[in-house]
Amino acid sequence: MRHIEQTVKYLKNKGFEAPEVGIILGTGLGKLLEEVKILEEVSYNHIPNFPTATVEFHKGHLIYGELEGKKVVIMQGRFHLYEGYSLQDVTFPVRIMHRLGIKKLLVSNASGAINPEFKKGELMLIDDHINLLGGSPLAFKGVSQYGERFVDMSCPYDKQMSEKVEAIAKQNQIKLNKGVYASVLGPQLETRAEYRMLRTIGADAVGMSTVPEIIVANHLKLPVVAVSVLTDEGDPDNLEPVDIKEIIAMAAKAEPNMIVLFKELIKAIKV
């Protein structure tokens, strides 16, 4: 709690006043910032108690600005367990954005398609998830100080915002799949047997992030919506070596459609 108060005070002194919407940008998904009127920008390594992004394609900046008439705070780069951080570290920024005042949270990520009907370069609205990270960001002493310990997860993704995203996709003729996202530890990619297992247990896409942030958003009763950019295809019978550069390139190819979804959603939602 002391760390949260210290961090919030620092950011408010930097001008991060009353943001309405929080946004987490995933791997290769930074061009949304070109649409933002940036008012303040702080490097993660300057923010007290903040982790530091160690992945070369995650920039590591917290940005405050205006987008579609609303004040937004944007994470340009997120944190992962595979970087050596704890689940509490990974989700600390969500708690900070909430304390700053956000009323809605939008999350993006890059993931691998498991459902054979889904193709790389397409988007997937996350309807549900499977937590395969081996832990929970709520499993710590004193969690009840921040909210209920036993958080209901029967509908972790906000229904109203999700329905609005689907409507926006239809209006703009954007192919938007809907499915279940499985979060794994990484950083190694999946084996053929693991892809088969993930498909068997009901996953439509797999990645190494997002679920911890969603759990904490629900803990804070913060409505959240999430969209995956599908950057590769995990077909266990025709599995090809994954090139991270290709993943980044595919994320960039699909990013304009994600930007349309997020911009139009921010314009439409009431906070």
UniProtKB/TrEMBL annotation:
The keyword Transferase applies. Signal peptide: none annotated. This is Purine nucleoside phosphorylase. Residues 21-267 form the Nucleoside phosphorylase domain. Pfam families: PNP_UDP_1 (PF01048). Belongs to the PNP/MTAP phosphorylase family. InterPro entries: Nucleoside_phosphorylase_d, Nucleoside_phosphorylase_sf, Pur_Nuc_Pase_Ino/Guo-sp, Purine_phosphorylase. Keywords: Glycosyltransferase, Transferase. It comes from Mesonia mobilis. It comes from the Bacteria. PANTHER family: METHYLTHIOADENOSINE/PURINE NUCLEOSIDE PHOSPHORYLASE, PURINE NUCLEOSIDE PHOSPHORYLASE-RELATED. The purine nucleoside phosphorylases catalyze the phosphorolytic breakdown of the N-glycosidic bond in the beta-(deoxy)ribonucleoside molecules, with the formation of the corresponding free purine bases and pentose-1-phosphate. Its EC number is 2.4.2.1. Pathway: Purine metabolism; purine nucleoside salvage. It is an enzyme of class 2 (transferase).
